[in-house]
Design brief:
By secondary structure, this protein is of the alpha/beta class. Strand 10, helix 7 and strand 11 form a beta-alpha-beta unit. The protein starts with 14 loop residues before the first helix and ends with a helix. Helices cover 37% and strands 14% of the residues. The chain folds into 2 domains: 72 residues, no CATH class; 194 residues, Glycoside hydrolase/deacetylase (TIM Barrel), CATH 3.20.20.370.
Amino acid sequence: MYHVAMKSTRGPLGPSRGKALLSVTMAVLLLSLVVALSPGCGSKNASVPTLDPFKGLDSGLASASGLSSGGFVVDGCLFTTRQGDELEGVLPPVKPQVLSKGNTNVKKVALTIDDGWNADMRILQLLKDSKVKFTAFLIGGRNMVESNPDFVRQIQEAGGEVCSHTWDHYVMRGKDEATVMMEIWKSQGIITDITHRVLPYIRFSGGAYDQPALDWTAREGYWVVNWSASDNDTASGVTVDSQVAALLSGCSNGAILLCHWGGHNTYEVLARAIPEIQKRGFEVTSLSEVMEGTPYVLTEKAYREHNKKK
């Protein structure tokens, strides 16, 4: 819950000052309502209807409250109405870093689910019913997000947040700068057109990258996310027992768990593994929540300072 504290001042407010203060107050209250009603990052409610409150809102908030033009950051997530090419350069640059763990001081693990091909919708229902937050790394092209916007919306409704798994799902080794830039922003653009959000995390196919790709990605404001443990659901001949065991053995503070929407036995594995992980005292949640308390979080201050320079 967000609260607006009005600090008392000496003497009566002049008309212009009073209007400005009222504008700021209304902007903050409106922002609070948007965040509270919007599923995904910045929301503590894992199952609420999808709203699209951002069209026409952002410029009013920016002018009324002094927020950076083009969006505002809440809980490490950029809420924005920018689309397509307008998104390029919106994030402040970061130091090149591959993340395989979050905050090791808290008993939380991040559930990340990749791709989106042949999605087993029982997984989504399981997470929604269990009120478990999660992060979906979705492919922008190749008949994924571009052809399945409703799937993205359903992920948000279930309490999930959506990050890019690149446009083509190609390995990011040996690619030139133009290709890497296209893979980042074309995918992010189509995701943000639906979600109105940008998170500063991206995952490459197979977790593979080279130093130039890592450097270019960091310059664009993204940390590359790999994982601590996988259920091996892309391997043939795996059993549910071995997959559950693989996830459980990799559980530790800040762990990042990997599985796939269309993987082998993924629904059965999660149906068994999640309750067991919770019995061990871990909260199963989204990547952004596991990153809280680390340097790998987008802040409003960094976003505002970066966009002031433009």
